[in-house]
UniProtKB/TrEMBL annotation:
The gene is lpxK. The keyword Lipid biosynthesis applies. GO terms for cellular component: plasma membrane. The lineage of its organism: Bacteria, Pseudomonadati, Pseudomonadota, Alphaproteobacteria, Acetobacterales. Belongs to the LpxK family. It comes from the Bacteria. The keyword Cell cycle does not apply. It catalyses: a lipid A disaccharide + ATP = a lipid IVA + ADP + H(+). Keywords: ATP-binding, Kinase, Lipid A biosynthesis, Lipid biosynthesis, Lipid metabolism, Nucleotide-binding, Transferase. Pathway: Glycolipid biosynthesis; lipid IV(A) biosynthesis; lipid IV(A) from (3R)-3-hydroxytetradecanoyl-[acyl-carrier-protein] and UDP-N-acetyl-alpha-D-glucosamine: step 6/6. Its EC number is 2.7.1.130. GO terms for biological process: lipid A biosynthetic process; lipopolysaccharide core region biosynthetic process. This is Tetraacyldisaccharide 4'-kinase. ATP binds at residues 55-62. It is an enzyme of class 2 (transferase).
């Protein structure tokens, strides 16, 4: 699967010429998305919460889903997660089995999520929901799918990366947005802005983004194992620099950083290069949990994995959100 890098002007609000030239195509994309939203989705007999976004690329949706799923489990609920399984080869709706499936089968994020609770992959969210309910789910979490109308959502939470915001503010292909932001805000019930607001999102959209909450990221406790060690950090994420910056903020000595495309499947030559680099620099290899599930087992044992945890600015905010979700207040 070929994965193209986003053009630089997508992140430049000052860019004018290219977005203008591409605006007729953006109008078509926006119209198609708006038309799709008029479709009626299947209403599941259990509540459905969608963690989605307006822009393409990683914004932190999976991290939010993991956080909310863990909170639901602590409440004694039986959440199941629905996701498309980006990058996986399976084309039929499938329940992820970590003991059987690989990242090549179902994608990396579903394998990561399945370590916590049941996960279903499939493009048809309604079919996934039916199968999840039949398997005993009493609530459903969608990892992405905000623009997919096949399943009715009781509550939609938009996730925004504070580091990039909404880019240049234009719809594909003139910018990184899947639809006009004001249309998205009108369909959502809540928004979470993750990390420092480097693009002025709150000032620009704070009055129209529904129920805006703030959250940050912190490295998991395993980062303490890296203290005093030289490290080679590698990651294939939407924004791998976030991982590298997080390690640096924890005073991890990075001898080298290596970035790969998002959802990248590591080849033998990649692993050999990383291993040689670690030996030559007398350093330990470190990566993310999402990358770790894409590594062969023999190589995974050579790597220290450091994840991230969501830290809500208002600790009560996610619990209030889940109260509304479970009690049907969102509608």
């Amino acid at each position: 699967m070929v994965r193209l890098r986003a053009p630089a002007f997508w992140s430049q609000p000052s860019a004018k010429i290219r977005p203008l030239l591409l605006s007729p195509f953006s109008a078509i994309v926006a119209a198609i998305t708006a038309r799709k939203q008029r479709q009626m989705g299947w209403a599941a007999p259990v509540p459905v919460l969608c963690c989605g976004n307006i822009s393409v690329g990683g914004t932190g949706k999976t991290t939010v889903v993991l956080d909310l799923a863990e909170r639901l489990l602590q409440r004694g609920k039986n959440p199941h997660i629905l996701t498309r399984g980006y990058g996986g080869r399976l084309r039929t709706t499938t329940r992820v089995n970590p003991a059987q499936h690989t990242a090549q089968d179902v994608g990396d994020e579903p394998l990561l999520l399945a370590q916590l609770c049941p996960v279903w992959v499939g493009a048809d969210r309604a079919e996934s929901a039916r199968m999840a309910v039949a398997a005993g789910a009493d609530c459903l979490l969608m990892d992405d799918g905000f623009q997919n109308p096949s399943l009715h959502k009781n509550l939609s939470l938009l996730v925004v990366d504070g580091g990039v915001g909404l880019g240049n503010g234009h719809v594909l292909p003139a910018g990184p947005l899947r639809e006009h932001p004001f249309r998205a805000f009108a369909r959502a019930q809540a928004t979470v802005l993750i990390g420092p607001d480097k693009t002025g999102f709150q000032e620009r959209f704070g009055k129209v983004a529904p129920h805006l909450m703030r959250a940050g990221l912190r490295q998991s406790d395993t980062v303490s194992a890296l203290q005093g060690l030289r490290c080679v950090a590698f990651a294939g994420l939407g924004r791998p620099e976030k991982f590298f910056e997080g390690l640096k903020n924890c005073n991890v000595a990075l001898a080298q950083t290596v970035a790969f495309p998002d959802h990248y499947f590591y080849k033998q030559q990649d692993l050999a290069r990383l291993a040689d680099m670690a030996v030559s620099l007398q350093a330990r290899l470190v990566t993310t949990p999402k990358d770790a599930v894409r590594l062969p087992e023999y190589f995974r044992h050579k790597v220290i994995t450091v994840g991230v945890e969501l830290v809500w600015q208002n600790p009560a905010a996610p619990e209030i959100l889940l109260d509304q979700f479970l009690n049907g207040a969102a509608g």
